[in-house]
Amino acid sequence: MPKIKTHKATVKRFTKTKTNKLMRRKAGQDHFNARETGNTKRNKRRDTQAHSSDHKTLSTLMPYN
């Protein structure tokens, strides 16, 4: 059986933790942040967990990571 190729764009956007949670970066933090409150800007800097319905798809795209 041949190896499965890793989807490189997915690997750049998601990271797998030690407990196999998939973490992603919050969207919308590149520009237009002057109007955001301090709390919103701070929360956008944090990583969040990917939705549980996406785990099966993402794990097939990242088989070895």
UniProtKB/TrEMBL annotation:
Per the record, its GO cellular-component terms are: large ribosomal subunit
Q: Which GO BP terms sit in this record?
A: translation
Q: Which Gene3D superfamilies match?
A: 4.10.410.60
Q: Where is the composition biased (Basic and acidic residues)?
A: 46-57
Where would one find the signal peptide in this protein?
A: none
Q: Which Pfam families match?
A: Ribosomal_L35p (PF01632)
- Return the InterPro entries for the record: Ribosomal_bL35, Ribosomal_bL35-like, Ribosomal_bL35_sf
* MF (Gene Ontology): structural constituent of ribosome
Which ranges are annotated Basic residues under compositional bias?
1-26
Q: What are the alphabetically sorted keywords of the record?
A: Ribonucleoprotein, Ribosomal protein
- Kindly provide the name given to this protein in its UniProt entry: Large ribosomal subunit protein bL35
What is the phylogenetic placement of the source species in the record? Bacteria, Candidatus Falkowiibacteriota
Gene behind this protein: rpmI
